[in-house]
Amino acid sequence: MGRVLSREEGGVGGTEFELTDTDFRFIQWFMHKHAGIYFSDRKRTMVYGRISRQLRRLGLRRFADYKLLIEQDSEERVGFINCLTTNKTQFFREYHHFEFLENVMLKEWSKQGVSNLNFWSAGCSTGEEPYSFVASLYSKGAFSTFEQIQIYATDLDTKVLSHATHGIYSDDAISSIPPKYLQPCFFKGKGSQLGNIKVAKGLQQSINFQQLNLLDEWNWQEPFDLISCRNVMIYFDKPTQEKLIKRFCQQLKPHGILLLGHSESIGSCSDLFKHLGKTIYIKQ
Ligand SMILES: C[S@@+](CC[C@H](N)C(=O)[O-])C[C@H]1O[C@@H](n2cnc3c(N)ncnc32)[C@H](O)[C@@H]1O
Which residues form a coiled coil (predicted)? Predict the structure, then answer.
């Protein structure tokens, strides 16, 4: 699709739906206010594409009519936010984080006599990230070493969370799972599930999936040994990123670990964490 012209620009013709400058400003404001997500003007075509699917489903021609629905109907509002989140993920993404967990942190926690591990996968999308953590922990015998392992996995988007909770993935997902985790931690589907894989039930039970907007209040009972918030803050503006990094720091145990995505950093909060390289941070 080429550039989406707005009505103000005199160019609605040729596009299927009407998305004016005012509409786009509303979307920018709404997503920033409710999800922390910032859409620059360059994202307009992408936004148009995603909104189009919603308008087509509802038989609407103008975003302005959809806006009325969003304002009145909370379910439609959730669908609107869901359609504008970017959920790209995969198993064992940024594998060096799992190597660090297995080769460094598990030994360290064990040496320190830690008995319970508490992790948070913040912005877990369809679940590949928390399932990779449990597979990684399982492969190193952590479920025998530690008395209790709890992984909280949260996302704003209710649709991806539903997928994550079911834990069923298509064949394509297999290619990103190193073979040493595949056989012990995943089942291959049969019959109607042929070609799909599912995470072993015992492992699935150690993950607690919850809907959570990172901008809202958190009510965690216990501090975390590790927080993974990878490829999430990249969509937020600088002040929102900074606020979150400070809140993550407060939510970690002393010397707790923060993992960020490959193009993310702690920015101006360098007094709170020591950088161990490859976007791995330890609370100071
Ligand atoms: C690109 S995915 C990253 C998934 C995974 N962490 C990874 O690195 O593969 C970003 C996720 O962040 C979620 N997200 C965006 N804004 C959020 C917010 N304000 N609160 C919670 N989750 C949010 C999106 O719904 C999306 O599923």
Answer: none
**What is the model's pLDDT at position 171?**
80
What average pLDDT score do residues 214-237 get? 97
Pinpoint the residues of the chain covered by CATH 1.10.155.10. 21-84
Convert the pLDDT of each residue in 245-258 to its tens digit. 999 999 999 999 99
Tell me if residue 21 is catalytic: no
pLDDT at 3 (0 to 100): 43
The domain at 96-283 falls in which architecture? 3-Layer(aba) Sandwich (3.40)
**CATH 3.40.50.150 region(s) of the chain?**
96-283
From the options 3.40.50.150, 1.10.155.10, 1.20.1330.10, 3.40.50.2300, give the CATH code of 21-84: 1.10.155.10
Neighbours of 35 (CB within 10 A): 19
Is residue 228 within 8 Å of 128, Cβ to Cβ?
no
How far, in Å, CA of 151 to CA of 135, rounded?
A: 12
pLDDT-derived band of residue 174, with 50, 70 and 90 as boundaries? confident
- The CB of 127 under 6 Å from ligand 1? The reply is no
What's the gap in Å between 212 CA and the centre of ligand 1? Answer: 10
Binding residues for S-adenosyl-L-methionine: 87, 89, 93, 129, 155, 213-214, 230-231
Q: Does 261 contact ligand 1 (Cβ within 6 A)?
A: yes
Alpha-carbon span 272 to 275, nearest angstrom: 10
Has 155 been annotated as catalytic? yes
Binding site: which residues?
87, 89, 93, 129, 155, 213-214, 230-231
What pLDDT digit, counting tens, does each position of 66-85 carry? 999 999 999 999 999 999 99
Of the candidates 245, 218, 219, 217, which has an alpha carbon nearest to the alpha carbon of residue 232? 245
| 3-class secondary-structure state, position 125 | coil
> How far is the centre of ligand 1, averaged over its atoms, from the C-alpha of 86 (Å)?
7
Q: Residue 24's closest CA among 7, 36, 11?
A: 7
